[in-house]
Amino acid sequence: MKNNFDSIVIGSGPGGYVCAIRLAQNGHSVAIIEKNKNFGGTCLNIGCIPSKALLHASHMYEQSNNEFSKMGITSKTSIDINEMLNYKESMIKSNTEGIQFLFKKNKITSIKGSASIISDNEIKVINGKSEEQYNADNIIIATGSTHNTIPGVEIDEKNIISSTGGLSIGNVPDSLLIIGAGYIGIELGSVWARLGSNVTFVEAFDRILPNTDTECAVYLKKILEKKGMKFILNTKVESVEKEKDKLKVLLSNIENNEKMELSSDIVMQSVGRKPYTEGLGLEIVGIDQDELKRIKVNKDYQTNKKNIYAIGDVISGPMLAHKAEEEGVAVADIISGKYGHVNYEAIPSVIYCDPEIASVGKTEEQLKEEKIDYKVGKFPFIANGRAKVNNQTEGFVKILSDAIDDKVHGIHIIGSDAGNLIGEATIAIEFGASSEDIARTCHAHPTLTESLKEAALDVDSRAIHK
Ligand code: NAI
After folding, report:
1. pLDDT tens digits for 8-42?
2. Which protein residue's CA is at the shortest distance from atom 35 of ligand 1?
3. Active site (annotated) includes residue 445
4. Which domains occur in the chain, in start order?
5. Where would one find the signal peptide in this protein (predicted)?
6. 211 alpha carbon to ligand 1 midpoint, in Å?
7. Residue 245 pLDDT
8. Was 52 annotated as part of a binding site?
């Protein structure tokens, strides 16, 4: 096998594999190194793809038992958890195999093993007992992130699990306690609650989804509570102990230090993620990291070593697959002497619960903090014809536009297909649209997208159906 390349990418998650493909498109000889069995990183193996497979399957199950009868579909369904988990595994397989196909198509050399950087241009790869050395003009670090840990909670991936274990619980547990009501907690908590678990969230903050638009988060919490999920806010988990076949969870209220004890079959921890740089040799070659262990880069994703770059979860910014992909393309173009850039003002985020929450741009809280005067346009899905016939009327679209020039600062949606609707909102922000631009754009009828137009009209109190 060839050992010298123009560029070597370390890590084959959405940041790394997209970067490798773009480098190959730009004419580079490229190798990508991955230490896991499959390509695709967290997203394809233990993140976005498997969680969405389970979210979709569990949503279908919940709908079939609770909603279908309203439309005249009457037979009850049951679940076969093993088959559901097999379905999830098959989705991982087909997606990761897709990446292998893309590597072949783009003539990218894939190398299996654990990479460490041993000098500015050299990488050592260990795979079992074999060790090989490779050279590259450019090295791109895209090693992603791993879950945070908290003292007093020892993850064994059996009863005390991380989000990885949360994707493979073999039997639907009677009770599931989730530490952290953030993205992962809310999504995986929704899966197991739909399948029949009693789900309790313990959240350190005084609200769920701390970085999301408050109004959407408050609205979602009410809906999830109606579905039977419980929330204990302002509270930390002090310890989790095994007691016969149950877990004893000791909680402490952050404000008054009051203690509480709960019992649960399974405890899942989802308290954020941290950059993954273990064994990469950053200290050996002298690559700078910040206080959160993120690799420091300049605007061109260059570390303090001019030919070593870093992208994705391992640098600052939201830990989102699509943010990493954008950076992968940008850095590949920059390395190839082209113009590459990422507009961090227009990165959407989606929480795939039911209803979904999707946002792009600034929240009301950020606008207030930045002392930007803004107008609000809002439209509820209950007034949208398509949402009504779909029997999915929960939620609303909220548009925040500048009080002076009407430029859209942020769009926040809670509703059944918010994750797809946010595409239009992201384009609007990318192109610097005003709410008037959205209001004057013809939207197909009957679609949920009409709610965006109506919310834009509502910025100046002109919504038609409200
Ligand atoms: P997160 O940052 O979304 O939420 C963690 C939550 O845990 C926060 O609400 C925090 O206040 C709470 N917390 C922290 N320490 C705690 C403690 N000791 N006791 C109780 N609560 C505590 O992180 P999460 O959910 O682990 O997700 C990690 C990353 O993965 C996120 O940054 C997100 O960007 C990404 N992700 C994205 C998804 C998507 O795009 N749909 C889905 C899942 C994850």
Report:
1. 999 999 999 999 999 999 999 999 999 999 999 99
2. 319
3. yes
4. 4-147+274-342 (3.50.50.60), 160-271 (3.50.50.60), 346-458 (3.30.390.30)
5. none
6. 10
7. 87
8. yes
